[in-house]
Amino acid sequence: MTVTLLLEPLPADARIDDLASTFREVPADAPALRVGELSTQRGDGVFETISVTDGHAQETGPHLDRLRNSAVICELPEPNLAQWRAAIAAAVALLPARGEFALKLVLSRGVEHGPAPTAWLHAAPAADFARVREQGISVVTLDRGYAHDAAAKAPWLLLGAKTLSYATNMAALREARRRGADDTIFVSSDGFVMEGPTSSVILRHGEVYSTPAPSGAILHGTTQMSLFDHLAETGRTTEYRDVRVEELSTADAVWLVSSVRLAAGVTELDGAVFPYDADETRAFNDYLLTPRD
Amino acid sequence: MTVTLLLEPLPADARIDDLASTFREVPADAPALRVGELSTQRGDGVFETISVTDGHAQETGPHLDRLRNSAVICELPEPNLAQWRAAIAAAVALLPARGEFALKLVLSRGVEHGPAPTAWLHAAPAADFARVREQGISVVTLDRGYAHDAAAKAPWLLLGAKTLSYATNMAALREARRRGADDTIFVSSDGFVMEGPTSSVILRHGEVYSTPAPSGAILHGTTQMSLFDHLAETGRTTEYRDVRVEELSTADAVWLVSSVRLAAGVTELDGAVFPYDADETRAFNDYLLTPRD
């Protein structure tokens, strides 16, 4: 069960009454993109992945805000968020009422020399992460090659944008598996914790939850933000700050959180057993599986 | 006038008599790729751009060697080079006998969870670079964020592979234009000359031509190698070595060389007028426009 909708290019401020007329469904197994697409030739575009849980698209607002922010960083035309909201709602309506789905939004620079960007969304069943959420993951740290302040000095590195140029992220996941691990935490060349290739990192020291400050070198994680809101609302202390790599080993618990897999607790770090809080991980995922906006 | 051929997945060592039956032409303006393509979702694939000059595909062998090397680095199935050669020949036969064309080869990891990679080539008229070849380019240096030995320490950065994840390269070109320049030379975070976003750097000090050693952090440039072969054959001294950023300012001439634009002499560097050798640049391009294998 998949749903693919192609969106017609629309200026960010266009007000259209019949937004449903600006996108159309295409068969998932049929070709929909031209080879001149800059998304495919250059990884030149931005994306978001939203979880659709039992018929509810999670955190649509934060995802669309980040899509727009990524577009601004990449100097793409700003997306029309009303159109995206309508397309997301249409896709959700076509999906089964139960179950978890991954809904990917893509905004590409379009066909080379073309007049307009290309945009589409694609929803497919999520992998079954029940076991991972329950039992946790083994993680290795890998050098991301950049200093943690690289983004401020070199914005053309696009580090704060969720671009389609993810070949390195995918290679890092392959390297993790080669080392017998499930996932990786990127560390900066100057010794700071950054993020996972497709996730944010949350540490707990005592009663304090921290995550690397989104200085531009890492993405502001929608799931991490949602969880921090929840923690703050329930009286816990959260903080954004620079986190040294050594602090991973002194943490009482570490999680990688992302939109579709949700909270995965670290059970092993760089080959050593790591303290894993099964109860808190379960509580995190219970919260993350509720409808959130 | 464009030509697009889709190649059927073929193991590297498959020996097929009728190779022409393993690829087919598709209309350039028709959709040919599925939205599940990892090339478009993740920039997950590798490519080459070959110049076709008056009916001759330049340096096909070195380009295919590099395509294979990129595939190995990215753990993609090795391409069947006989099939690619046959497809390139078929595309060239469909192009006009005169003029310059850019022929792009793409090898993608294929559709997500799909059984096989996707491969295609696409030929289109090259931009008219006559003026640039004659009058040169203004260039700014931009920080690439990595140390020059990053690739050796972190192969998952894929720095030696020509991947489809080129969003940063494209952003660097936009930054150069924002600064009033035509192109950029990437420099490492520790002060070494690397490469252009789509070109190699050649410096001349006196009678010696040098280019940054392809240590894995930069691509081995096919046009640079071809030009160095030519220089060596005509009695000039060439060398691969680490090049400090300061050496740019002491050079007697600097060129950015690439497959389609060919040799572009630097006339301005970071806002200052730079020595430009029009005669030697013309000689380089005269050579580069001859049929080369």
UniProtKB/TrEMBL annotation, chains A, B:
BP GO terms, sorted: carboxylic acid biosynthetic process
UniProt-listed Enzyme Commission number(s): 4.1.3.38
Keywords: Lyase
Record SUPFAM superfamilies: D-aminoacid aminotransferase-like PLP-dependent enzymes
Primary enzyme class: lyase
Keyword Heme: no
Domain of life of the organism encoding this protein: Bacteria
GO terms for MF: 4-amino-4-deoxychorismate lyase activity
Keyword Lyase belongs to the record: yes
GO cellular component annotations of the record: cytosol
Protein family membership: Belongs to the class-IV pyridoxal-phosphate-dependent aminotransferase family.
PANTHER family: AMINO-ACID AMINOTRANSFERASE, AMINODEOXYCHORISMATE LYASE
Protein name per Swiss-Prot or TrEMBL: 4-amino-4-deoxychorismate lyase
Lineage of the species this protein comes from: Bacteria, Bacillati, Actinomycetota, Actinomycetes, Micrococcales
